[in-house]
Amino acid sequence: MRGSIFDRNFHELAVSYRVYSLYARPLELGNRSEVARLLAGVIGENQDVIEARLKKPQGVIEVADDLDRKQAAAIRRLKIAGVFCNPKEERFYPEHETAAQVIGFSGDGVGLAGVEGRYDTILRHGEFKGDTIPEIDFAGQNILGHSRMDLVLTIDLGLQKEIEQRLRRYMERQQASEGLAVLLQPETGAVLAAVVLPSFNPNYFWQSTDASHRSLFCNFLDPRLIRPLLVRAAAVRRNGALGRVLLPETVAAPDFGLPEKDIERYETAIGLYDTIQCLSPAGDGKEGGQGKTGQDQSIAGGVNVMQLATTVAGLVNGGWKIRPHVLNSVLDRSAGRRFHRSREFDGGAGRHRIMSPTMGVRMRRELFAANKRVADGFLLYTDSAVGLADKGGDRKYVMQDLLIGMMPRAFPTMLLAMATRRDYLYPLAKPAEKGTRRLAALGRELLPSLYRQAAEWKMAAHVPVGANKANYEQFLVSRSIDFQPRKVGAAGTDSLMPRVTGLSLRKGLRRLSRHNLRIRIEGSGRIVAQNPQPGKPLNNAGECVLTLAPEI
Fold this sequence. Notes:
Number of strands: 21
Largest sheet: 7 strands, mixed
Structural class: alpha+beta
Oligomer: single chain
CATH superfamily of the domain at 157-282 and 291-315 and 356-455: DD-peptidase/beta-lactamase superfamily
C-alpha cells in the first residue's frame, strides 16, 4: 500500500487502509431473499435494500462498499455462490484541514499535490532510485522501495495547531479574509509549521473552493511590507563589516541615503525573488512557484510568505541563504531503517552564502538595533501595506499586515512569518484595532509558547509498529457517514453524465460528486478524456473513468 506520512513526532498525517467492496453476479445467485438476509447480517444494511440491488439486470453489481477486513472474512466464510469481495486502498487524512496545503492529497494511489505529489516516487509502492531524492542519505543504496516506505516530516503537529488556532482567531477579530504563516529554523531551513487559511479537507479535496487552495507559494504579498527591514540591511552592507554604525532613523537621511536602484539590487542579491522549490502547491501538482489558483488576486511584483521568511533568515543566521524543506527522513519499517537528510546536500546545494561571516555578525547585531520591540528575549517586526490586487480582470484595494518574529534574541533558532489580508479597507463591520498593533501583541504571546514547545522536543527513539487504532476507527466512522445510496429516478439532467473534459481534477470531481459514482483516475494533470461520455445516461453506470494528462 501507499506509504504513510508522519509529523516529526510520528503523528499520522496521511495513511492508507485496505477496505473491501462487495460484488454479486445475479445470474449465479440462488434464493436472492436468503442471500440478502445473510449479507444484511454482516454488513448491517436493510435486507430489502440489498435484495432490490440483487435484482438489477447486470452481469456484476456492487452490493456494498468500504467493508473492513472482518466483514470481508465473514462474507467469505458464508461461501455464497456468485458473491465475492475485492480489496481496494483508501487514503485518509486524520487531521483533516490541519497542514492540508503541506500534505496535499492523492487520487487513485497517485500523489497530486503537496508532499503527496512532491514525493510520490517514494510513497507509491514500487522501486525507485535513491539519487532521485538527493536530500536524503540512503547510505549508499541506489535501488529502494522493495517494501513500503513512509515519510517523516519536519512539521510539528502541536506547533502547527497552535499557530492555526491563534491565526484564525486573529483573522476573525480583524475581519481578514486570508492568512499565512510559516515557522522555520533559520539556520537549517526546516519548516516546523506552515499555515494557509482558509484551508481545505484533503479527504474531500474536490469539494473545496479556489480560495482554500491558495498555497504558501502564492505571490500575493506586497514587497513593501518588508522594505524598511531590507533598506536597513542594505545600509548596513554599504557601510561594511567594520564600518560606522547606522544613524537613528529619526535623524538619518531617507532610506539612509540609498538610491532606489541600489535597494532593488540588494533585494535581488539576497534572493528575495528567488523561486522556492519545496512542495508541489495544492491544486496544480507542479513543483515550486505558484499554480493557477495562486494567480488570482496576486500583487504585481508580489512575493510569497516563504520568500519573506527565508530572506529574513539569511539576514540573521550569519549570512546563509537557506532552502526551506519539510522532509525530515524516510522510514523503511519492514527493515527497521530510517534514512535521514543528507549533510552533504544541506551543507552544499541546500544553502549558499549571501554575505561574509563577519558581515553576518554585524548584520544580526544592527538589523534590529533601532527596533522598539526588541525585548523579552525575542525580536519582532510588523508593518502594513495597502495595494492593488487583480481579481477576475478587475483591480481592487487590499490591506495586508505582516509579522516577523524571532527567538532567542542573540542568535535566533526559530523564525515566524505571519501575514493576513483583508479584501477591503474601511469602514469595517465592527471596530478593529490597528493590525500591526494587534499582530505585535499576538507575536509577544505566541513566540515564547512556540519556543518553549520546540525546546522540549526530542527525536523519537522508537518508530510506530502499526497503524493508529483511533485514526482507523475515525476512518471507518467517516466512511459510514459519507455513504448515501444513490437514488435512481426519472431520466433528466441529473441522471446524465456531465462534461468534465478540460477541467482540473478537483473541479471535475466536484461536478461529479452529486452522482455518487465510483471514480477511477488514470494519469495526472488535467482531464483529457472521460467515460461515460458527456450526456450519456447514468442510471446503470457504476464507474466513471477519468484520463488525465499534464499541461504542456
